[in-house]
């Protein structure tokens, strides 16, 4: 009923002909919060341009920056597939058509939520083009569905921060329960992406199905400490808490120079350092932009010396999520 | 050096001759936070009266309410042993003597932090009698040592809330890192102690050393949700988060009528219901005192019908910890 009402409220005569949206990259896990925490960064991110067409259907007009790795078939590409799902949900797939340009400003398979950024940009764009019939909360399940298409798992720890901005907690999945956490003012992230291949599926398969209860207790003490630290803007507590005793020891194996990079970051004053999502990107959390810059530059230089190409980004926590550009 | 200075500052001529202290019972784990969370309640609790003597040494004058179960030997009784440790730490064990009366107002082996309440009362009493040479933070390690003597484990999830009051998080043990969490105004606890024997050691041994990572993720999502809920005074979030998928299924086996009691509590509007510490006491968390009363009365009547004796208590979260009485 509710949906029918919203569909009836859609006024196609007032709808814009095009829109351009940026959605941010995200750092899932936030070092100690495997599968439950994540935050958005100002850079990098992905861009989606969307054009209204008179002919119904969802088409991919072009994809830039993916080195030809992403499918142009609208049923296989997660952005177009999610947009189509949303139009079907609203029951307007025969009344409305769009063409999509996807401009990837970030590497695929980097552990920075590349597919999430694209999916969120696409869904935010179509929802805006339609006059925002759905709230962000209502868009979230479509974003999660996009993750399932892209990675085989319907995780929300990238799409939630990409969509809502800031730091998000996925309390649980049944039903999906996302909590926005406070963002301390001076929190910065220095991200380095070493150009090595770590497919998300492999990174997940490495992780053991059983863990020592003792280690789990250490981990959830740290998670609880991090949440308290965010509410208190207590950077010392954040630093003491952002430690991963469970996942990092396994995943770090896949990342060249991980412990050397960690040592450099901590020596330069990082609050914490760890793996972004399933890697291979790594992240230094700092309470100062200049420290994050020093860290990423030093790590990049180190990787170059070891003949490993890399990209690096320094950014505050992005608190807005996707935004209309131009 | 610091200690010597404090010792020199002690002015024995100004010290009171006696003191009487109450310290609160505590609910460790707070349902979802095994080994890291705990809170203090206004009732029940233990009482320690302490008398200065000219003759050095620490003696137990009497113990009431323990049915003869606690040792009178000052080296074996945890209260006197901890008091002695503190006097030795200050280097004044040959200059100062005390006699202790311990009045137990709460059952031993109930899962309500009985030994913690006594130890905290004793250490708070001696520190006050001496003019407070140590801060509460400095008293904590002595309290933890008391737990080690009493239970064989140096856990802090009972002594920390008993000493500091309120809701405490033990972020980690190396070093001991205790965080005081906010206490929402309307949070009440209805505690029922079914008089059955569940020794802490047995309750711990039942728990498996390894847990499924999937369950650990569920648990730490809930723990993170609870911390956020406490900061936000969001009772719905607190309720959704206070679930224990890891420990309760095992420990509940030892508690008669556990699931029947849980059903009654949830039917009457509890935010959550679970085991207090290692049990057999159970606790209903409510946002209203009258709901907590209804729950404890209904559960007690049910246990009586099943020929199980019980005690019950309703209380707000105690936010002060130990206090001087009379």
Automatic annotation (TrEMBL), chains A, B:
Residue spans crossing the bilayer = none
The UniProt entry, under SUPFAM superfamilies, shows: GHMP Kinase, C-terminal domain (SSF55060), Ribosomal protein S5 domain 2-like (SSF54211)
This protein's pathway: Amino-acid biosynthesis; L-threonine biosynthesis; L-threonine from L-aspartate: step 4/5
Every GHMP kinase C-terminal domain range: 227-303
Which Gene3D superfamilies does its entry note? 3.30.230.10, GHMP kinase, C-terminal domain (3.30.70.890)
Instruction: State whether keyword Repeat applies.
Output: no
> Which reactions are catalysed by this chain?
L-homoserine + ATP = O-phospho-L-homoserine + ADP + H(+)
Q: Where in the cell is it found?
A: Cytoplasm
Q: Which residues form the GHMP kinase N-terminal domain?
A: 77-166
Entry's Gene Ontology molecular function annotations = ATP binding; homoserine kinase activity
Tell me which EC number(s) this protein carries.
2.7.1.39
Could you tell me which InterPro entries the record lists for this protein? GHMP_kinase_C_dom, GHMP_kinase_C_sf, GHMP_kinase_N_dom, GHMP_knse_ATP-bd_CS, Homoserine_kinase, Ribosomal_Su5_D2-typ_SF, Ribsml_uS5_D2-typ_fold_subgr
GO BP annotations of the record are: threonine biosynthetic process
GO CC, any one term? cytoplasm
User: Does Nucleotide-binding appear among the keywords?
Assistant: yes
List keywords of the entry alphabetically.
Answer: Amino-acid biosynthesis, ATP-binding, Cytoplasm, Kinase, Nucleotide-binding, Threonine biosynthesis, Transferase
Q: What class of enzyme is it?
A: transferase
Q: Please list the residues that bind ATP.
A: 107-117
Q: Which domain of life is it from?
A: Bacteria
Record-stated family: Belongs to the GHMP kinase family. Homoserine kinase subfamily.
Biological role: Catalyzes the ATP-dependent phosphorylation of L-homoserine to L-homoserine phosphate.
Instruction: Give the protein name, as stated in the record.
Output: Homoserine kinase
Instruction: State the species of origin.
Output: Sphingobacterium hungaricum
Q: What is the lineage of its organism?
A: Bacteria, Pseudomonadati, Bacteroidota, Sphingobacteriia, Sphingobacteriales
């Amino acid at each position: 009923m509710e949906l029918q009402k919203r569909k009836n409220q859609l006024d196609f005569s007032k709808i814009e002909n095009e829109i351009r949206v940026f959605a941010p990259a995200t750092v899932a896990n936030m070092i100690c919060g495997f599968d439950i925490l994540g935050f958005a960064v100002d850079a990098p991110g992905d861009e989606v341009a969307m054009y209204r067409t008179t002919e119904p259907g969802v088409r991919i007009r072009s994809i830039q920056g993916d080195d030809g790795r992403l499918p142009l078939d609208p049923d296989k590409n997660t952005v177009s597939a999610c947009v189509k799902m949303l139009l079907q949900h609203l029951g307007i797939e025969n009344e409305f058509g769009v063409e999509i340009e996807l401009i990837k400003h970030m590497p695929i398979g980097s552990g920075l939520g590349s597919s999430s950024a694209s999916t969120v940009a696409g869904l935010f764009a179509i929802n805006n083009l339609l006059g925002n019939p759905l709230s962000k909360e209502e868009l979230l399940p479509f974003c999660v569905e996009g993750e399932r298409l892209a990675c085989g798992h319907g995780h929300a720890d990238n799409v939630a921060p990409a969509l809502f901005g800031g730091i998000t907690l996925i309390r649980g999945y049944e039903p999906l329960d996302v909590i926005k956490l406070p963002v301390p003012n001076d929190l910065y992230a220095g991200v380095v992406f070493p150009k090595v291949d770590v497919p998300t599926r492999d990174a997940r398969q490495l992780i053991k199905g059983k863990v020592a209860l003792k280690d789990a207790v250490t981990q959830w003490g740290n998670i609880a400490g991090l949440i308290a630290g965010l509410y208190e803007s207590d950077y010392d507590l954040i630093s003491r808490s952002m430690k991963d005793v469970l996942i990092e020891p396994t995943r770090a194996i896949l990342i060249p120079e991980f412990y050397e990079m960690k040592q450099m970051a901590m020596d330069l004053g990082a609050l914490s350092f760890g793996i972004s999502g399933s890697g291979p990107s790594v992240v230094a959390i700092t309470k100062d932009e200049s420290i994050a810059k020093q860290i990423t530059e030093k790590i990049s230089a180190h990787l170059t010396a070891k003949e490993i190409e890399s990209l690096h980004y320094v950014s505050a926590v992005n608190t807005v999520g996707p935004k209309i550009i131009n």
